[in-house]
Amino acid sequence: xxxxxxxxxxFRRGFAIFCLSLLAVVASDTIAIAQNLSPTLAPTLAQTxxxxxxxxxxxxxxxxxxxxxAGAVPDGLGVSLSPVADGERGVIGGDDRTAMTSxxxxxxxxxxxxxxxxxxxxxxxxxxxxxxxxxxLTNAHCIVDxxxxxxxxxxxxxxxxxxxxxxxxxxxxxxxxxGRGWSRGAVDEDWAIMELDEAxxxxxxxxxxxxxxxxRSDVREALDTRVFLxxxxxxxxxxxxxxxxxxxxxxxxxxxxxNVRDDGRIIHNCDTRxxxxxxxxxxxxxxGEFTIVGLHAGGFRNSSSGEYSSNYAMQVNRWKEAAxxxxx
Length: 328
Known about the structure:
By secondary structure, this protein is an alpha+beta fold. Helix content is about 15%, strand content about 30%. The chain starts with a helix and ends with a helix.
């Protein structure tokens, strides 16, 4: 029996690839618009940082072509090691996060996944990343009702590289696969893969992934202070003219994966809050690829103070097989 959904996906893939040459001019225009977006949004603030003030250190790990993904950078889209565009404000207050204002790769492949009411207004959001031309990665708890164990009925819209509430593109997203055990207590299955109506990865790029054996101390040591996280936290930036919390992603660079719990969850110390669920933990390999090494999902609170003591993420090996199924 023909799987109608898979046939439809294959047809769309083939049609998209066939049309790429015809869309070259349109793609160039779209990329130019995206790259010029951030400077037009530059707030008038005293403290500014340039890309030269940042460094994303490389990690000496090697991709396995059988299980890992190198990602993709579209022709004409620049690559930047800094989340900050020229002239933009970076560090805000004493927070370790930086406002992401760059429209270059890999920052371009990260966006806000919005849950919409029937009238089109935003009910809530998570963070998601492009991992294939028309596929994004996020958390199961962003799309599943934990009480009913069913998918939420609201519509979803993905807005790549949204900065100060503005994005060049916004496209509907539908669920392809997710960790079905999450709502029933499998805490290490908090992942979801969604299909976009438009193949935006051709314009914004795709993040790869690296299935690192994080139970090994030498692997965690190689990644120590070399991981960064980008997400749309609902508390960031705060009290800054021209910014509204959650409308610009915050990037915490030079953080670490500190441990792997017995239940399979990764422990990390990157700064986050609600809205950053689904954020990628990214490492830049010495060979140049930007790869997801974990999928942020939540945090642990101190029982006495109520403050977060650590954050946790999903391992790549929990969702990579599903992701490979939808690779082009």
